[in-house]
What we know:
Blueprint: H1 14-22, E1 27-31, E2 37-38, E3 53-57, E4 61-70, E5 84-91, E6 96-101, E7 114-120, E8 129-134
Amino acid sequence: xxxxxxxxxxxxxxxxxxxxxxxxxxxxxxxxxxxxxxxxxxxxxxxxxxxxxxxxxxxxxxxxxxxxxxxxxxxxxxxxxxxxxxxxxxxxxxxxxxxxxxxxxxxxxxxxxxxxxxxxxxxxxxxxxxxxxxx
Length: 135
């Protein structure tokens, strides 16, 4: 099971996250000890140190916590996509995801804007990635 970016997405149990994304499901670890959601993946709950972490499908709904619009492509593969927006999305479950914001002109993005998950292919990568769009 290989993904790009030097395998950076295959650490710990991240393979489950990417396997779920491939079938358009968004899963996050959930702690059976303190009932909190955890992302990025961990071996132990960072809140209560429990080992009882289970991958759980989440709502896929959240809000834009912060964002940046990219006007100069950092890689040739993204040249035809500028300007594009990347955002920290706060999921309803209380965890943040760094993601691409799709179907939203850069000048219409705002803090606390409601968003929902969608899945898309990204340049120079294979498979689907969880991205977000206005919700």
